[in-house]
Design goal:
Blueprint lengths: L5 E15 L2 E15 L4 E5 L6 H9 L6 E6 L2 E2 L5 H5 L2 E4 L3 H4 L6 H12 L4 H14 L16 H13 L5 E5 L7 H18 L2 E5 L3 H7 L2 E6 L2 E7 H6 L4 H16 L1
Parallel strand pairs: 3-8, 3-9, 6-7, 7-8
Antiparallel strand pairs: 1-2, 1-4, 4-5, 9-10
Helix pairs in contact: 4-5, 5-6, 6-7
The structure holds adenosine-5'-diphosphate and magnesium ion.
């Protein structure tokens, strides 16, 4: 058996929320959860707001410290790697490019930032990589001098994708990365992500509550509810025979919504 790219065992997170009746209070944002991700695979995480999806994503990229459990990358504990090394493994794309992209930086600088902080490459080489990634996401070399407000929403999300790709990570986490986009743009970005996956052999963790998109893109799915993993299955299994009532409801609600349109 080959070592999975990412292996997570009993990962948990509780937030300290203050004192009540002389006792420390905690919010269990994530109950112990285990899963694996292989190279080229797409894992979807679904669940209503507050179910712990973003908490899980933030822990994986190192933006949050876990309360318990282990994370292994290609068989090695992720703790052995510093944040710079982790950036080369896992990167994240956020929901809204208007908040994830600093409006005061040019597209060129936004894309240069990860290289500047995490590599020793000289400026000329970094510039070449920036232009290369811009083209990969369907933008032009001229865009380096543009500011985010000068380009469309779809183009901004393309910049966010390029930024996530700068260090050639193996895993991309898309946290509701399509949710804020118009329907037509959504399809374009989705197709871009699928093309990049094929071309670069990327693995995705796709956080979404859109069951149609999830069915289309993912190999396997985890359903979270109030921080608990209530169902884990392949996409086919989950849609053909959802085991949990909550999962059945998610699928049903989505099909009602689709029919109404
Ligand atoms: N920094 C924080 N401090 C305290 N509680 C938090 C913090 N971040 C998230 N939470 C709580 O953790 C739970 C999961 O949140 P989150 O992971 O953002 O859910 P989701 O992304 O599924 O909507 C929620 O109950 C939320 O209120
Ligand atoms: Mg979230």
């Amino acid at each position: 058996m080959t070592t999975p790219l990412l292996k997570v065992t009993n990962l948990s997170k509780s937030y300290y929320t203050g004192y009540k009746r002389f006792k420390r209070q905690y919010n269990q944002a994530l109950s112990p959860i285990s899963f694996e991700l292989k190279t080229g695979e797409t894992l979807a995480i679904v669940g209503e707001a507050g179910s712990g999806k973003s908490t899980l994503a933030r822990i994986l990229v190192g933006a949050e410290i876990r309360s318990g459990g282990d994370i292994f990358f290609e068989g090695d504990s992720l703790d052995k790697h510093d944040l710079k090394q982790r950036c080369r493994m896992i990167r994240m794309i956020f929901q809204d490019p208007n908040t994830s992209l600093n409006p005061r930086l040019t597209i060129g600088d936004l894309l240069d930032e990860p290289l500047k902080f995490n590599t020793d490459l000289p400026e000329s080489e970094r510039r070449a990589l920036v232009v290369d990634k811009l083209r990969k996401v369907g933008l032009l070399s001229e865009h380096v001098d543009f500011y985010p407000h000068m380009i469309s929403e779809g183009q901004k999300q393309r910049v966010a994708v390029a930024r996530a790709l700068m260090l050639d990570p193996k895993i991309i986490i898309a946290d509701e990365a399509l949710t804020a986009l118009d329907l037509s743009v959504r399809a374009q970005i989705l197709n871009l992500l699928l093309e990049l996956q094929k071309e670069m052999g990327l693995s995705y963790i796709f956080v979404s509550h859109n069951m149609n998109i999830i069915r289309h893109v993912s190999d396997k799915i985890m359903v979270l509810k109030k921080g608990e993993l209530i169902e884990k299955a392949t996409t086919e299994q989950l849609f053909n025979a959802p085991q949990h009532e909550y999962t059945q409801r998610l699928i049903q609600e989505q099909s009602l919504f689709t029919r109404k349109k």
